[in-house]
Amino acid sequence: MPVTIDLARQNALVTGGTRGIGRAISLRLAEAGARVAMIYRADDAAAREAEVLLAAAADRGHFALRADIAHEDQARTATSEAIERLGGTLHALVLDAAAGGAGPVAEAAPADWRRPFDVNVHGHVWVCQEALAALQPGAGVVFISSGAGHDPIPGLGAYGASKAAVNHLAAILAQEWGPRGIRVNVVSPGHTAMQPVDYGSLSEKERATVESTALRRMGTPEDVADAVLLLVSKLAGFVTGQFLRVNGGRV
């Protein structure tokens, strides 16, 4: 019998799920059979496009809710509403919403430092707390991290520190939620091209990135989505507390 990933009759919630990598994840989960709820911060047009895209792939009543998860009340309300609309159960939770920020630590204003932590860490704590009661035994939770969370990159101090906190938070939740049968893992994408790449006309910086990658190409949002799909599925039923780099073997 062929082995497939089937999420039929399962519900998924994806933060930051209407654009970029998050949209690719939402679509892949929908294609595998899940009903998907997406939380987004501000881009209504992108949210509507994502809803249409998922419906075209598999029309199971996928929907998007607007909320800035940096604000506890919005994070909790959106998560609670999403779960209610999904029928009260959750089988996959993907935490992709992110806030960045660049510049030397010494020059960072308080707001520049707070925003990445408010979204990447605090916001996802509120979502996780609100989702816990709905997560079913065997559910998969995946945090989307970044290379900046484990490699020190000058100019990405606040963002990198927040992603390092995400990595540790996921490891703690894997231990705390394991007895409930809930698995928690981290996916850390490498350099991911949001548009098709013309490898014949790369910039010097892009060429250096490709040449430092074992597979000699940039990643795609779909590469990340496939890894997430595996981790939330039963095929990864004994995998928790792990940190997976989806970076093509970049060194």
Distance between the termini: 38 Å
Calculate Rg over CA atoms.
18 Å
Q: What's the total number of strands?
A: 7
Q: Regions with pLDDT < 50 over 5+ consecutive residues?
A: none
CATH topology: Rossmann fold
* Structural class designation: alpha/beta
What share of the residues lie within helices?
A: 40-55%
Large-scale geometry: globular
Overall pLDDT level: 94
Beta strand %: 15-25%
Please tally the helical runs, counting DSSP H or I stretches of 4 or more residues.
7
CATH class: Alpha Beta
Order of helices and strands: EHEHEHEHEHEHHE
Strand count, sense and closure of the main sheet? 7 strands, parallel
Strand line-up of the largest beta sheet: 3-2-1-4-5-6-7
**What is the domain tally?**
1
Q: Which CATH architecture is right?
A: 3-Layer(aba) Sandwich
CATH superfamily: NAD(P)-binding Rossmann-like Domain
Explain this structure.
With 251 residues, this protein is an alpha/beta fold. It has a single domain, classed as 3-Layer(aba) Sandwich (Rossmann fold). Helices cover 41% and strands 17% of the residues. It contains 7 helices and 7 strands, in the order E-H-E-H-E-H-E-H-E-H-E-H-H-E. Helix 1 runs parallel beside helix 2. The protein starts with 10 loop residues before the first strand and ends in a 5-residue tail after the last strand. The model has no long low-confidence stretch (mean pLDDT 94).
